[in-house]
Protein 1
Amino acid sequence: MNRKIIIAIDGYSASGKSTLAKDLSNKLKYTYIDTGAMYRSITLLAIRKKIFHSDLWNIKNFLPFLNNINFQFQWNNKLNKTEILLNKENVQSEIRSIKVTNKVSLIARIPEIREKLTVIQRNFGNKKGIVMDGRDIGSNIFPKSELKIFMKGSIDVRSHRRFEYLKKKGKKISYEEVKKNIFYRDMMDLYRKISPLKKSTDSIEIDNTFISPEKQLNIVLQLIENIRFCKKNKNYI
């Protein structure tokens, strides 16, 4: 039998990680795991529990809520996309709000939360056949994954993409606000102490500043074909 692989996609905020991951998932019939959505879901939960209302952050009071937390990813046939369920509640739309976006980096740097999600994310890879995107997938979650991609792009292009996306969603926000948020996210991701954003030595870097999603997909599909060729005697993919 052919054996499926794990594809790890890391990179900067708004660099097109999720677009590539979704395209690969559809093309290969793999499961797409959006780790950013998982952190956003916990951020939403934190907002609901009002942990940001305290000057001292009542993180210790919040952590027990994570003991029985459950994530599910389900395919929406009508919208043709994967959606995340937090404790059986579909929160896909709510986690993309500006209030969540502005707080998610604060949640993502908390060691206890990262440890909790690391265990959950690794469990998703038990059967392989997954595409997972995030900030530390290749470097920390799946360091032995068969294919690692690291994505980057100019901050102006990334900000424009995010701004256009939010505008289409009817969000009222200026380009300057979007760019400021992305710059802030970059700094938080790069310099946090726990699992910072970094390119693994065996990652394939893609700068998609001037690359279309279609070309980007074709580049990675060719990389997968190369893995097929190199591993054909070991029954990969």
Protein 2
Amino acid sequence: MNATSEPRIAIIGAGPGGLTCARVLQEHGIAATVHEGDASRTARDQGGTLDMHPHSGQRALRAAGLLDDFLAEARPEGQQMRLISRAGRVLFDALPPEGDATEGNPEIDRGQLRDLLLASLEPGTVRWGRKLTRVDPLGDGTHRLRFADGTVTEADLVIGADGAWSRVRRLLSDATPLYTGVTFVEIGLNDADRRHPALAELTGDGTMMALDDNKGFVAQRNSGGHIRVYVGMRTDERWHQEAGLDLADTAALRRALLREFTGWSPDLLGFITRTDTGYINRPLYALPVPHTWPHTPGLTLVGDAAHLMSPFSGMGANLAMLDGADLAHALIDHSTIDQAITAYEKVLLSRSVEAAEGAAEGIDGAFAPDSAAQTLAHMTQRP
């Protein structure tokens, strides 16, 4: 396929996968339009920090011509990994590897990565405030897209990069995300080194985990002095309702979390009591494994829309970006959209199964009765 064929490519969702796909296509003279439901780039927080792996996320960034830009913003020191016992004792502390940052997994905030990708696109590529409401097949492999703002457009290829609850996926698969059994309650510490020095020291420069008896803490350094904390529990999906809790009642939620962690180190409990951002309930979901769908002309998926998995693989955003780059290259290298989709999905489906299985094993090991021992064994076996 080449620029003269002028295919109408609609990418639904301005996450890492969709934006990477658009960037690689534009680098090869092929236009694509990204439709995003958010009203603007700053409409909502983009989440925590990501580690970019050499053979997935970094490979995609290299394909997009953005690897050097990424390295200029990345935090190699963020690779530090620390495991703390429930009593507050350091069990494991691995510093980042020395040498070329591209040989490790340097960290970058999700928002910074998204901004980097957005800035690389031609003006007008992303259409903000375009929430997809309906996709109608037109019988020839093309589709009509309808958006909540009243916009209607047609496309030769619709790429579902629209995340966990993808509307595009509904045309390809009956699969829906299932609750993993684990819920995170997100907490934030601002200006942590100055305002919360003890918690900042406990966290280190990267990720700190304290996991035991089906619960625990995961604290991650972000840029700008912010620490994002996830208080995790293996619990019912509606745990707060069963406990009669109103998620807006900060004091009651704090008391409930402290009860869950009775007997844990006061140092760790400080993550619960010292929050600057309140408490955000985040149940974790994953698609069934394997998640496959029949080849359908004019439609395909990337990222979480294709293979939503728990964050305990560290592969979600990495695979989404690799999906986007590989799909773009398939479109560049093949003479028809249908040939490109077939080639891309063959690669996508095989590798996503391995990553999703690893993510499922990871979350089950991290939230188990003996999770402290399992996590320590896993960390000490890592190369």
